[in-house]
Write a structure and sequence with these properties.
It is a single chain. This protein is an alpha+beta fold and 308 residues long. It has two domains: 157 residues, Ribosomal Protein S5, domain 2, CATH 3.30.230.10; 120 residues, Alpha-Beta Plaits (2-Layer Sandwich), CATH 3.30.70.890. The chain contains nine helices and twelve strands. The strands form two sheets. Strands 1, 2, 3, 4, 5, 6, 8 and 12 form an eight-stranded mixed beta sheet that branches. A four-stranded antiparallel beta sheet has the order 9-10-7-11, covered by helices on one side. Helix 1 packs parallel to helix 2 and helix 6 packs across helix 7. It is globular.
Length: 308
């Protein structure tokens, strides 16, 4: 059986980081928002026993068992006693190590496809598998904007009006930020400051622009001034708010309308030409992409190529 779906990127519109827990994770309160920027994930499950194979044609460095998507498939097979060979093909559009959740979303897409193929309807068990793969994977498995607590696995739906965004992703490898480093830098800055952070609020209620913020942003900007420059570019083209997504290095601006975001993206594309900065126009989406029977990506009739 061959199935296909889209794996959407995300931004964190709110990211509050609490103290380090005994298990080595931080307590979080975050607002995840899925985007119309997405990878395409194709999954084939064979009736014959065999291995998990994962290919990312545009990024051969992501091929193989270390890819989160492959790890998700292995975790699924172990949890649900599936022996059939799994073949995964990922057409990447989401930048890698960007704070946009591309790897986690690909992993969740694989879980959704395999659950459909194997007729697994136990959402709690699937969520456990997702969390075993990565802290952000449960969000992508559930779909839709959500508030998240704990490591990010305690989810509640969020009523989020459509957001019009322009993302700037620096492609220079020297600006890549790994999540573990970003959290460590935050801990270091707090240790040198007034002490432990205050306890996180139980709820922030409905989303409002005044809540926008990312606790990981200050220590990352302190180490990478180039990101501050990119944020200044977004402000310069009229962004109502500018912030970093997740652990970065992608930064984004929020605009009042699609037309304003489009105009800003055009201006920024001209401004950063030749500087290895990718400009992405994006909007938030409300629904998780459907899992569909596989068709050629070139076929205009495929639902997964028409909508996110």
């Amino acid at each position: 059986m061959r199935l296909a779906t889209l794996a959407p990127a995300k931004v964190n519109l709110v990211l509050r980081v609490g103290p380090l827990r005994e298990d080595g994770y931080h307590e979080l309160l975050t607002l995840f928002a899925p985007l119309d920027l997405a990878d395409r994930v194709d999954v084939a499950l064979s009736a014959r026993a065999g291995p998990v194979r994962c290919r990312v044609p545009a990024r051969p460095d992501l091929d193989g068992p270390s890819n989160l998507a492959a790890r998700a498939a292995e975790a699924f097979r172990a949890r649900f006693a599936v022996r059939g060979a799994v073949s995964i093909h990922i057409a990447k559009r989401i930048p890698v190590v960007a704070g946009l959740g591309g790897g986690s979303s690909d992993a969740a897409a694989v879980l959704r496809c395999l659950a459909r193929a194997c007729r697994v309807a136990d959402r709690a068990a699937l969520a456990e598998v997702a969390l075993s793969v990565g802290s952000d994977v449960p969000f992508f498995l559930a779909g839709g904007a959500a508030w998240a607590r704990g490591r990010g696995e305690r989810l509640s739906p969020a009523a989020l009006p459509e957001q019009h965004l322009v993302l700037l992703y620096p492609e220079d490898p020297s600006l890549a930020i790994h999540a573990g480093d970003a959290f460590r830098w935050l801990d270091d800055s707090r240790a040198a400051g007034p002490g432990e952070p205050a306890a996180l609020p139980r709820s922030l209620g409905r989303f409002r622009p005044s809540l926008l913020g990312n606790d990981l942003e200050p220590p990352c900007l302190a180490r990478f001034p180039a990101l501050t420059t990119l944020m200044g570019r977004l402000a310069g083209v009229g962004a109502a708010a500018v912030m970093m997504s997740g652990s970065g290095p992608t930064v984004f601006g929020r605009f009042a309308s699609r037309a304003e975001a489009e105009g800003a993206a055009r201006r920024l594309t001209k401004e950063v030409r030749g500087s290895r900065v990718k400009v992405v126009l994006a909007r938030t989406v409300r629904r998780q992409p459907r899992v569909t029977s596989w068709r050629s990506p070139r076929s205009a009739s495929s639902p997964s190529t028409r909508r996110s």
